[in-house]
Design brief:
By secondary structure, this protein is an alpha/beta fold. α4 packs across α21 (698-707), α5 crosses α20 (674-682) and α12 (488-495) crosses α13 (520-537).
Length: 787
């Protein structure tokens, strides 16, 4: 992956945060010691990487102290959707995090965010990328809800990121934008994926995604014929924005985030150190010139077929996708040139010298390796020719050899944090990552007073754990010795040693004339005492808040909601209740109309007292039809605006804004993103907050109604299969296929609406007999069918 060096002379003076993942304690140490400014971790509850090692409460407190003593912030992910009966537990856990000194929590659930804002006002809230923030208006609403930072969607182009960043520079001083710059990406907009839950009951929004998008699929065209396509058409490559850091800094991004809470400590060490190097290069020199060595190091530690810059420069097309191999592809070593029957050794030609202990795989024509091994034998045969082994399998001349791990690279990575521990007295090495301090020794008569304070860090006023701290200790009295007092050099030598403490001495000042005799051991003891006291002072904790009043309010809300739920679940129709038919495309609605579905449905539902029905159609599709001179709409049609509108859809809505307003005011509107929700509420429309806003509990419903929504629909997380073919994914990628089928009988169709830049993935579920499916929904207590 060759790139020209990125030069920008408008050096950004603001400190840009490098935010690094840690799935466990070893990864945490690797992150700190390789230059992370902040680390995000998961606790034992409510995080979207339940499969990671994660941190129990005691481990988390140790990690916090280790990081804070070195000037590193810690954020905890609480980024799953929560049910009503989980909210109290989640708030109590957030209270523990608050008291323990966590710098911020990362939240998806609007209900949890509101509870934390009320109960723990000094605990910073960051809105997770799971909340699908794709535009500046939605980001503004997030800030109004109490979020000081939003983690924007990974599908954004640089101008779109810059537009969101401008909120902070123009009007909101305490607003920040966090951007993913490296690691795995999802094919679906984060927070909008139902694929894993629909086909296996494992919800990505609830922390247990099974990643069915990484499976093999057969691709079919509109005519039903099988296409010659990659075996894994839904699996994207990993992101690498190393070359784009300058542009992102200039755009105003405050934090660069690396993905990977399921990755190894060696991975964390390598990726962190490389991104640290180039962030510093840009901020010091004003340009980035990435070495081939560093590119290769990133590819070697993990890649799914080179890297992608995702959508930062616009649509990436097929270069986004990993193709036939979805796991780590490592680096191409060459090919097999000879095999010997009965032997596990093969001869290869390669420009990359193999080493014993390297991981290696051999591929034939398929998407799975023919053989995988850790090399136990390497012999050089000649220029770029080696005999390596051992391999088992049906290997042929011409097969491709890939190095999936490099022993020497992993060993260097381990050395960067080897011996580090959360317990200072057990540290077996000189600590690499230190916090700079200044010390002043005052010689006051026969007494010594040693003062130490941390050097000011960027943004320390914003982050209480990073604020300057100081301590003062004294020793004496000592014996006067006017003829041979302790020389200044001895003070300097003894006090400059910081050993295995978290500190690096930046400056030492000695004030006063020494007329006393002080032993070196006494000076060492004074220094140790001072640094120990400073270390304790940096163990940041917050005062407890009384959260019981908020929990009491929550109980009242859930008690009232429980009564309403029982009435709704009784199967009795509520006053003015309508059944909703949700169409993902105008064409599907036209087919329904042409088949006489509307008249049949009207006659059947008319026989049910109090029941009417609405047809929900995409607003951009409706106004496009109206602009083409279509006849007036049937009265039962109500428009909706989905979770993501950026691109063609947003352009259509803005260019036809008068139609949008007219339809919203006369018919009401369903909306699935915060920006358009606010805009339509402000014009006075009757707005229903729709499924894309992921209301999964009654506290979230209250938040949306407080914003002005007249009604709220549940997240698709609560949807039943009987509710039809609801959207499984919304993706920025345009698939060449119209239908995908996996070996596990996952069968989906790809919908590419002309009025949208995004694709929708839908199950190839039941069709026809819409009336029968409506009746089935009603019997099960559901009042929406996705057609």
């Amino acid at each position: 992956m060759e790139r020209a060096k990125s030069k920008r002379r408008n050096i950004n003076s603001n400190k840009v945060e490098l935010l690094v993942p840690a799935g466990g304690m070893e990864q945490f140490l690797a992150a700190v010691e390789n230059g992370a400014d902040a680390i995000y971790v998961g606790g034992q509850l409510f995080n979207a990487r339940a499969g990671a090692q994660n941190f129990n409460d005691d481990e988390l407190v140790l990690a916090l102290d280790y990081a804070h003593k070195r000037g590193v912030k810690v954020y905890v992910t609480m980024n799953t959707l929560l049910s009503d009966d989980e909210l109290e537990t989640a708030l109590r856990y957030a209270s523990f995090l608050h008291d323990s000194g966590v710098d911020a929590i990362i939240v998806q659930d609007l209900g949890l965010g509101e509870l934390v804002r009320r109960a723990l006002p000094d605990l910073e809230l960051h809105m997770s990328t799971q909340a699908t923030i794709t535009d500046a208006n939605s980001a503004k609403v997030a800030h109004e809800l109490g979020y000081k930072r939003v983690v924007v969607a990974r599908e954004l182009a640089l101008p779109e990121i810059e537009d969101i960043c401008r909120i902070g520079s123009d009007s909101v001083s305490d607003f920040e934008v966090e951007v993913f710059v490296h690691g795995a990406i999802c094919i679906c907009y984060s927070g909008q994926c139902q694929y894993s839950r629909y086909y296996g009951g494992r919800s990505g929004n609830r922390g247990s995604c099974a990643q069915p998008c990484r499976l093999a699929y057969r691709s079919y065209g509109e005519d039903g014929r099988r296409l010659a396509a990659a075996s894994h058409p839904m699996s994207p490559r990993d992101m690498c924005l190393l070359d784009e850091l300058g542009g992102l800094i200039a755009a105003g991004a405050a934090s660069f985030k690396i993905e990977g809470r399921l990755k190894s400590a060696e991975y964390v060490a390598i990726v962190t150190s490389i991104y640290r190097k180039y962030i510093d290069m840009y901020q010091d020199e004003g340009y980035i010139e990435v070495s081939n060595e560093d590119r290769e190091a990133l590819l070697q530690i993990f890649n799914r077929g080179e890297f992608t810059d995702a959508y930062l420069r616009g649509e990436s097309g097929n270069s986004l996708m990993s193709g036939d191999i979805v796991k780590n592809q490592g680096l191409d070593m060459g090919s097999v040139i000879a095999t010997k029957k009965g032997s596990t050794l093969v001869d290869i030609v390669t420009s990359r010298e193999p080493e014993i202990g390297d991981g290696a795989e051999i591929y034939g024509r398929g998407d799975a390796p023919l053989s995988s091994t850790v090399l136990s034998y390497v012999k050089e045969l000649g220029t770029e020719r080696y005999r390596i082994g051992d391999f088992r399998g049906n290997i042929s001349v011409g097969d491709i050899v890939r190095r999936t791990s490099k022993k020497s690279q992993l060993e260097v990575a381990r050395q960067s944090y080897k011996g580090a521990t959360f317990f200072e007295d057990e540290d077996t090495r000189k600590v690499k990552r230190r916090r700079k301090i200044n010390m002043t020794l005052n010689i006051e008569g026969n007494m010594l007073v040693l003062k130490s304070h941390t050097v000011k860090l960027p943004d320390d006023d914003r982050w209480p754990s990073c604020m300057q701290k100081s301590v003062s200790v004294e020793a004496g009295p000592f014996d006067f010795d006017y003829e041979s007092p302790t020389p200044v050099e001895r003070y300097e030598t003894a006090l400059s040693k910081t050993g295995n403490t978290p500190f690096e001495l930046s400056e030492l000042r000695i004030i006063g004339d020494s007329q006393i005799r002080v032993k070196t051991s006494e000076l060492n003891s004074l220094r140790r005492c001072c640094l120990s006291e400073l270390s304790k002072t940096l163990e940041f904790r917050r005062n407890e808040f009384d959260i019981e009043f908020v929990i009491s309010e929550l109980h009242d809300l859930l008690g009232r909601s429980g009564t309403i739920n029982k009435e709704q679940q009784s199967g009795k129709l509520q006053e003015s209740q309508s059944f909703e038919l949700y169409f993902s495309s105008i064409d599907d609605w036209r087919t329904f109309e042409a088949d006489g579905g509307a008249s049949v449905l009207s006659s059947r539902t008319g026989a049910v007292p109090g029941l009417s029905y609405k047809v929900l159609l995409p607003m951009a599709g409706i106004v496009t039809e109206l602009c083409r001179g279509s006849e007036s709409l049937p009265p039962e049609i109500v428009p909706y605006i989905g979770s993501v509108t950026k691109g063609i859809e947003e352009q259509i809505l803005q260019e036809n804004y008068e139609w949008v307003v007219k339809l919203a005011l006369t018919r009401g509107i369903f909306i699935s993103n915060l920006g358009w929700l606010r805009k339509m509420i402000e014009i006075g429309a009757e707005v229903t907050a729709d499924y894309g806003l992921n209301a999964y509990n009654h506290m979230s419903i209250q938040v949306l109604k407080a914003l002005g929504a007249s009604d709220v629909r549940w997240s698709l997380e609560k949807a039943s299969v009987s509710e039809g073919n609801y959207p499984l994914m919304q993706t920025e990628h345009r698939f060449p296929a119209a239908r995908l089928k996996s070996r596990r009988e996952h069968d989906v169709r790809i919908l590419n609406n002309a009025f949208s830049s995004q694709s929708v993935v839908l199950p190839c579920g039941e069709g026809g007999d819409i009336v029968g499916r409506v009746i089935k929904c009603l019997h099960e207590g559901h009042f929406r069918l996705y057609v």
